Amino acid sequence: MDSPGNQPKSGYIGPALFSVILHLGIAGLAFLGWSAHTPPTPVVPHMQAMVIDAETLKQMTKPQPKPAVKKEEPKREEEQKKQQDQEKQRQEELKRQEQAKQEAERKAAAEKKREQEAIALKKKQEEERKKKEEEKRQEDEKRKAEEKKQAEEKRKAEEERKKKEAERKKKEEEKRLAEQKQKELERQMKEAREKKRQEELKKAEELKMAQEAAEYERRLQEQLEAESSAQRQQRELTEVEKYKALIYSSLVQAWLQPPGEIKGLKAELQLQLLPTGELLSVKVVKSSGNSAFDQSAIGAANAVRKYSVPSDPSLFNREFRNVTIIFSPK
Amino acid sequence: MKKHIFFTLVLLISGLARADLVIEIDKGSRAAIPVAVVPFANESGQPLAEDIGQIVTEDLKRSGDIEPLDRTKMLSIPSKAEEIYFRDWGLLGQRYLLVGGVQYDAPSQVYKVRYELYNVQSQQRVIGKIISGKSEQLRDLGHAIADAVYEAVTGIRGVFSTRIAYVTLEKSGSKNIYKLEVADADGRRSKLVYKSAMPIISPAWSPDGKKLAYVSFESQRPAIYVQDVASGVRTQVTSYKGLNSAPTWSPDGSKLAVTLSKDGNAELYVLDLRNNSLKRLTNHWAIDTEASWSPDGRTIAFTSDRGGGPQIYLMDASGGSPRRLTFEGRYNSRPRFSVDGKKVYYVHQRDGSFNVASLDLESGQDQILTQTEMDESPSVAPNGSMIIYATQKNGKGVLAVVGVNSGSKYTLPAQFGDVREPAWSPYISR
């Protein structure tokens, strides 16, 4: 952009140049007038060199004084007049120049003022624009901030929701795990209780058996101390008969004879008994030749849940650990 | 020192006593033997036309010698060894356990039935087998299993695969239709053998189980026929003037003992089927009829009223003088030898009711086996364990069976009209 001071400078060049040329023109004319006293020489080349512009030429050619050779007197008068005219002309010119100058100055001032006004307006407009831009920018910023805030809030709400959902799920899972654990615990406790109960039962059973054994041992010792060996033998014989009779009756009850004619059939079984009266094993030593009959005998031997055996260990070992049973219907 | 001698003595005595204690069991219970028949697993992949386990259960139950466990009391339904908890079955009081399964071979359309019998106490397998047959033979398979189980448990051959013949009477209007039919031993799957508007009586199986001899009145008077059951081919063997009745086969199947009145009075004759020769056995003014051959073929028991009322007599199969067998009561008739030949079963009248009784030939001891009122026509199962007879129920003839050992009784399903004159077949070889 041009600086505001440049324009007035160039504005001055025109009038200044004009003034210089004008002065030169006047000096030239004066010289010409004087040269008329000199022998006439072609002066055309001088004239030609004087022309600068049309305006100047016009002004110069118009009041062209007639070079006249007059009597001395008139000549001076004319000279004076000519000088006066010239002065007047110069004064007018000066005046005109002054006016022009003033006019130019006025114009320049006006111009300057106008320019200043334009600048001010432009500045004002610029300011206005900047202000508006600023407002717009602020507004945008505000709006953006608002949007950002909203987005932030939304994001936060979403996060909150997700967090809550996760918490809920976590709680449910925890609850489920807790229930499962509780159930497992209950089951384990139940099992433990049952196991304990079984163990206690077993213990009680063992204790009872131990007590019985101890009691029996004690009684046996008492008896042994009390009786003679002969008495003991007699007692044992009686005991054997007693338990034989008990085993006989349980087998008679347990034996489901096969139907049909079985008279004369005879099966011999060997039983292995435990001191508890339980059957350890049974085998057919001599078959009857009739499979169903043998099976019925095996069935009978097995069907007796508990054999009656003496609790005296030595008597049991001697007589009842191995027992032969002959199934022979009459 | 004294103590040492004592202990030595004790040891010696103990050593001598090493021989096991011996206990002799001379009696036991004759109660029915508990056998659990577990429903057979259906591994065939399709519905079965028959419940084999149920057939076996019913067969065994009817024998009276075996008491199958009620299915509802079973704690588990094993079908093979590894599924059995023997203790459970022992606690249920079972002596034997039958398990099995049914498979099907689609290309051949054959069912394969596996069965295994266990001794619950010893936990040992007593029998085990796979048998096969087509759909219509499923009942046969069931009966075959029942036979095998019965034999394993009792030592007696089973008769569940045998058949019975009987006569039914249907009355439609004034017309009578008599039918001779043959059915499974349990009364199922009956088949018509011969049909007539005139009476048919006294069917008797040939010893090979292939033929039936019977009396038919189709030609207005009685005649004896022999008919092949499978082919239906009939042969008239006697058509004498007067009575032609009560045919029974000799144990070898070559002869028939018959009652004929061609000589004026009802007498026993033996008809030799090989040459149609006839031999007269009795010669008495009284009625002699209803002959029964002893299993050895040497003796014939029969009914005669030569003593004033019908009584059972025995005579040599080749003839000779008869010996009176029954003296109890005024009416004893229709004798049948037991399978072992040691007893005779017959109809005995006492206090106005007719019952089946048995007489021990050696001891002469008799025993009444049935308690209903109008029991007649006893026929012994080939294993001797059961007797089938005709009796009355709601005014109609029905068939009933009594267990010879157990005394248990059952009535066959009354799907027939009025049934009479049953005859139990011998073992039928398939």
Describe the structure.
The complex is a heterodimer of chains A (330) and B (430). The model of chain A is unreliable at 1-10, 33-49 and 65-70 (pLDDT under 50). In chain A, helix 5 crosses helix 6. Chain A is rod-shaped. By secondary structure, chain A is mostly helical. The two termini of chain A are 152 Å apart. In chain A, strands 2-1-3 form a 3-stranded antiparallel sheet. Chain A has helices spanning 6-35, 44-50, 54-61, 72-226, 229-254, 291-303, 313-320; strands at 267-273, 279-286, 322-327. By secondary structure, chain B is mostly beta strands. Chain B contains 4 helices and 31 strands. In chain B, helix 2 packs across helix 4 (138-154). The longest helix of chain B is centred in the middle third of the chain and has 17 residues, at 138-154. Residues 8-17 of chain B have low confidence and may be disordered. Classes of the chains: A mainly alpha (330), B mainly beta (430). The A-B interface holds A 229, 240, 244, 247-248, 251-262, 270, 282, 290-293, 295-303, 318-320, 322-330 and B 6, 14, 17, 20-34, 65, 90, 95-96, 119-122, 126, 151-156, 340, 384-385, 403, 405-406. Strand 3 (322-327) of chain A pairs parallel with strand 1 of chain B, so a sheet runs across the interface.
